[in-house]
Every structure is written in structure tokens, then in C-alpha cells.
Design brief:
By secondary structure, this protein is α+β, with helices and mostly antiparallel strands. The termini are far apart. The longest helix is centred in the first third of the chain and has 27 residues.
Length: 196
């Protein structure tokens, strides 16, 4: 009786260990294809969250903060949750350095450099541009700042040629004067440029 039970268990184990059937392989391949489709759709989602150039922070402020217009999210999309986690991990997740908004900017060089505008809000507001490649910060530059008790504030436009024009703007009459100029080059470095 024990021999019969042992032999039965031996054959059951042997049968279950045989090579998977074609249908099992097909199911595995289908699961792999589904994962690939999901990954591709995440890339597509990332592409749709890019802000086109020129990126004018004053226009963003007018459309999204001052007027709260419905086209705000379409014109100035913020990064998705996957990209947000990645950027926060790269920044180091220090709570005092958490930006209120992060915008990913189109890269005219068509390489792996990722360009982000970080918007920090609090008693004062400030903005930085950040370039990343292979999960490493290449360059980071302050490009905007405002404090309500001052007479002027800094704002910026990232132009189609990756030039960043930084303006001093008068709070009362909104006159603006170019104060600084930077260029994001093809390697992701943010280089100070001469004013014309």
C-alpha cells in the first residue's frame, strides 16, 4: 500500500514538472505583451505632459493662478505621478525643498536630457530650472523670485531656442526689463549668456 502511494506521488510530481504546454507559453507571452503595452503607454503619457516652448511663466501665472481658466491644465500640464516620484527622489525628498508644481519642458535637442521648471511657493515664491540625464542632476539654476514686500520681482521665459530670459518686473506698472540670460545647451548645462 505504501509502495502504491509512493509510486502515485512520484508520477504526479513527474507529470507536474514536465515542460509547460504551448498554451502556458502563449499566456506568458500575452502577459509580457501587456506589460510592454503598459510601458509604452506610460511613455506616451509622459510625452503628453511636456510643456511646449516658449514657456512664459507670466502667462502661466495669469492663466492658472490669477484667472483660474479651464485651459490651464491643457496649456501648462504638470508632470505625472511617475515623473514626480522620480524627480523627488533625485532631489532628495527634503520637505523644505519640495516644489509646489513641476513642469517638464520640451527638449529641442531630441536627446535624453530632461528639463524641468520647479515652482516653490511659500512666504516668497521662486522658480528653478533643472536638467537631468540618467537620473543625475546636470544643472540647476534659479530663474524666478518674488516677495510681496519688494517693488520688483523676477520672472522668465524659456524661448524656443532654449534661451532663458529673466526679467525684473515692477509690481505696480508691470514694466519689465531683461536682467539675466541663460542658455540650456545640448548636454543639459545651463550657461550664463551675455545680454544684448
Amino acid at each position: 500500500m505504501y509502495n502504491l502511494t509512493f509510486i502515485s506521488l512520484f508520477f504526479i510530481t513527474l507529470i507536474s514538472c514536465k515542460e509547460p504546454s504551448k498554451s502556458t507559453k502563449k499566456e506568458t507571452n500575452n502577459a509580457t505583451q501587456i506589460n510592454v503595452r503598459v510601458a509604452k503607454s506610460n511613455d506616451t503619457l509622459k510625452i503628453h505632459n511636456l510643456n511646449s516652448l516658449p514657456f512664459d511663466f507670466e502667462k502661466y501665472t495669469a492663466i492658472c493662478l490669477q484667472q483660474s481658466l479651464p485651459e490651464c491644465e491643457r496649456k501648462y500640464p504638470k508632470i505625472n505621478d511617475i515623473s514626480l516620484k522620480k524627480v523627488m527622489d533625485i532631489l532628495g525628498n527634503r520637505t523644505e525643498d519640495n516644489p509646489t508644481n513641476i513642469f517638464q519642458i520640451s527638449n529641442i535637442y531630441k536627446n535624453n536630457i530632461e528639463i524641468y521648471v520647479l515652482d516653490f511657493e511659500g512666504d516668497s515664491t521662486f522658480q528653478e530650472v533643472l536638467t537631468i540625464n540618467n537620473n543625475q542632476i546636470i544643472s540647476r539654476q534659479s530663474i524666478g523670485h518674488s516677495m510681496p514686500e519688494e517693488k520688483t520681482y523676477k520672472s522668465f521665459v524659456i524661448e524656443k531656442d532654449m534661451i532663458i530670459n529673466i526679467y525684473m518686473i515692477d509690481y505696480q506698472n508691470l514694466n519689465k526689463k531683461i536682467a539675466e540670460k541663460y542658455k540650456i545647451d545640448a548636454t543639459g548645462k545651463i550657461l550664463k549668456s551675455k545680454l544684448n
